[in-house]
Amino acid sequence: MKEFKVTPIRNGTVIDHIDVGMALKVLRIIGVKEDVSSTVSVLIHVPSKKAGWKDIVKIEDRELDPKELDKVALISPDATINIIRDYNVAEKFVVEVPSKVKGIMKCSNPGCITNKNEPVEAEFEVESKKPISLRCVYCDRITTDVSDNIV
Amino acid sequence: MSGSFRGMDVVSIRDFSREQLEHVLKVAEKMVPIAKGEEKSSLLEGKILGSLFYEPSTRTRLSFEAAMARLGGRTLGFDEPKGSSVAKGETLADTIRMVDSYSDVIVLRHPQEGAARLAAHFANKPVLNAGDGAGQHPTQTMLDLFTIKKLKSKIEGNHVAILGDLKYGRTVHSLSEALSMFGAELTFVAPPTLQMPKEHLKRIEGMGTKPKISSSLEDVIKDADVLYVTRIQKERFPDPAEYQKVAGLYKVDMNMLRNAKKDLIIMHPLPRVTEIDPEVDQTEHAKYFEQAFNGVPVRMALLSLVLGGSK
To answer: Which of B170, B178, B264, B251 is nearest to B218 (CA)?
Structure first.
């Protein structure tokens, strides 16, 4: 018999195949905090056929918007999104690392003009998707640590 | 070619192809007699250069002003933000939008990296980057290329040794990428703590050049065709103790030059402090003052190209 550590959800989003160890960062970047109003389940270090180990996040009564999906893709490019409606998987897709990133993260260079009080959002060209590497359009600095710079 | 320059921003050397850079050098060559005052030009008559220097600069600012004046144009702006609306807390974006409406072309030096790209974003008129913090300084790179080409007849195949602060020095990053694009051989000479950042090395290698790395000028100087010396800039060091360790480590003097090729040229973006002995100024090797002059024809070429005065 299959053992369920976490029960299925009725409505919401299951983010599966998160790179192992990244689940808490995923929660942080999509803004799940202590004031969350619906149930959130987090599974860390789950056996995975594909990658050996993975993390899973289940968020009830919430579907992620495109900007949030981009954020997830940037820190866990193999993550799978399952949109659950009435206990059924209504949509299932792998996140896609965008080729340009804007308004999602700040530049890691403290001397970059985008970190000053200017009316612009930091913008990046994705130089490499795996491992992730982003080049600031303004100062050219390469950022590889996305989760620390998410806004 | 002319169509591709009119209205163009000059923010980073990476925005230029080799063909475009060669064209700038060709136009600059034609500007030399005007830059020297031997010929007169009214190519940019009635045009205004908005010159915004948020950081001190002698050569870059004066050579831009000289370039504009030699072509019959005028310059307005400031050479320090004190006393301007910037001191009152105005954003760069707002200052740029204002100057954009007063002038035909903008030159910007700013302490923050990426400032020129931001300015180009907000300005309708062309923006020329005159150095943004530790970032890019493309017009310096172009005048460096111009100097090598003029003195060595071509850039390709020359062995260029670049000495000094390769970690923080902004000129050396753009220059080494451009030299690599032109097929020069490169050797980077610096103490390990100030060597070329890996990110830049990777980029240069990606362009097909495999630069050599050394910490000994003695070992490198005998094979060099061009020695590009840079100042170890105290102001770029986050840690003063790190600066003290490396300050004065290299000195180009007559003794160092005894094994150099006869036609070695020595370049320096200036200002220099102690890295080149004044005795060297008297030798045929010393080309840094000529290099500083070359800033004028190169900037004339750029101003006239982006304003549509030259084709």
So the answer is: B251
Rounded CA-CA distance B250/B163 in Å is 8
Reported CATH class of domain A12-94: alpha beta
Q: What's the rounded Cα separation, in Å, for the pair A71 and A96? A: 10
Distance CA A118, CA A98 (A): 25
B interface with A, Cβ–Cβ < 8 A, is: 12, 14, 91-93, 110-115, 117-118, 121, 132-136, 199
H or E segment to which residue B246 belongs: helix B240-246
Distance, CA of B20 to CA of B34 (rounded, Å)? 22
Cα angle B138, B282, B246 (rounded to 5 degrees) comes to 55
Strands B265-267 and B226-229: parallel
Check if the beta carbon of residue A29 is closer than 8 Å to that of residue A150: yes
Strand, helix or coil for residue B217: helix
Q: Which of A118, A137, A142 has the CB atom closest to B92's CB atom?
A: A118
Nearest C-alpha of chain B: how many angstroms from A117? Answer: 7
Query: Residue ranges of the domains in chain A?
Result: 12-94, 100-149
Burial class (CB in 10 A: 0-12, 13-18, 19+), B160: buried
pLDDT digits (tens, 9 = 90+) for B259-310: 999 999 999 999 888 899 999 999 999 999 999 999 999 999 999 999 998 8
Q: Which domains does chain B have, with CATH numbers?
A: 2-135+293-306 (3.40.50.1370), 139-291 (3.40.50.1370)
Interface confidence, given as ipTM, is 0.86
**CA–CA dist B13, B1 (Å, integer):** 17
- B198-206 vs B170-181: helix axis angle to the nearest 10? 20
pLDDT in tens, B232-249: 877 777 788 878 878 878
In the numeric block, which tokens belong to residue B258?
């005894």
CA proximity to A139, closest of B199, B192, B181? B199
**Among the partner residues B12, B113, B136, nearest to A112 by beta-carbon distance:** B113
Distance CA B105, CA B75 (A): 10
What residues pair up with A59 in beta bridges, in sequence order? A13, A40
- Give the largest CA-CA distance in chain A: 59
Domain A100-149 - what CATH class?
mainly beta
The pTM for the full model equals: 0.88
- Which residues on neighbouring strands pair with residue A63, listed in sequence order? none
